[in-house]
Design a protein that fits this description.
Largest sheet: none
Structural class: mainly alpha
Strand content: under 5%
Order of helices and strands: HHHHHHH
Number of helices: 7
Shape: elongated
């Protein structure tokens, strides 16, 4: 058991199972860190997008509002300790932690794109772009651990030199299940030969 697994088991609630997955610790904590920073930055840059209402740019206002809501949601999921004043945050964070990594990846990527499309300014690209990067990190976590070098060599060898089909020489091999075997009893004996 690694050091981080021991720390996680000590910090777990009583009766809570510690998840055992093959994701490296640096990728798991990196996803949380990038998600937390992306949430703060998305909220701040979303406010800057909303200031564009002065120039009557409604699309950037909608993009800024979308980005601020997405940033707050990302903070609630990735760092619930930053939003202790909201009652449902811990429940939302626990529910998302029980979901597979690919669910978070799809959600972050799909929800970050509209703000960039509505107002392709630097504040939208950086704010929602970091949330998109968080989705990409969770997508890499969903792919799982890379195979060993020996496994990859064996797979490459199997693809390069496929096995020839095995010849079937057994008399009792059937193409169809429950087929009756062919029996050889010889030529019928006629009365003229007797």
């Amino acid at each position: 058991m690694s050091f981080t697994d021991k720390i996680n088991s000590l910090m777990a609630r009583p009766g809570q199972e510690v998840p055992k997955d093959d994701v490296p610790w640096w990728l798991r904590y990196g996803g949380r860190t990038v998600g937390t920073l992306a949430g703060f930055l998305a909220i701040f840059l979303g406010v800057l997008n909303c200031v564009s209402i002065i120039t009557a740019d409604v699309k950037c206002l909608i993009s800024g509002l979308w980005q601020m809501v997405l940033g707050f949601t990302t903070l609630c999921i990735e760092a619930p300790c930053c939003c202790l004043f909201v009652d449902f945050v811990q429940n939302l964070s626990d529910w998302m932690d029980k979901r597979p990594y690919w669910n978070k990846a799809v959600a972050y990527v799909a929800l970050s794109i509209p703000a960039i499309i509505l107002c392709p300014s630097l504040s939208s690209i950086f704010g929602s772009g970091l949330i998109l990067v968080t989705g990409v990190i969770y997508g890499m976590m969903a792919l799982g651990k890379k195979a060993t070098a020996e496994d990859m060599r064996a797979s490459a060898t199997d693809e390069a030199f496929p096995q020839a089909p095995k010849s079937v020489t057994a008399m009792r091999s059937n193409l169809v299940e429950n087929a009756q075997p062919i029996s050889f009893t010889g030529a019928p004996i006629s009365d003229s030969h007797v």
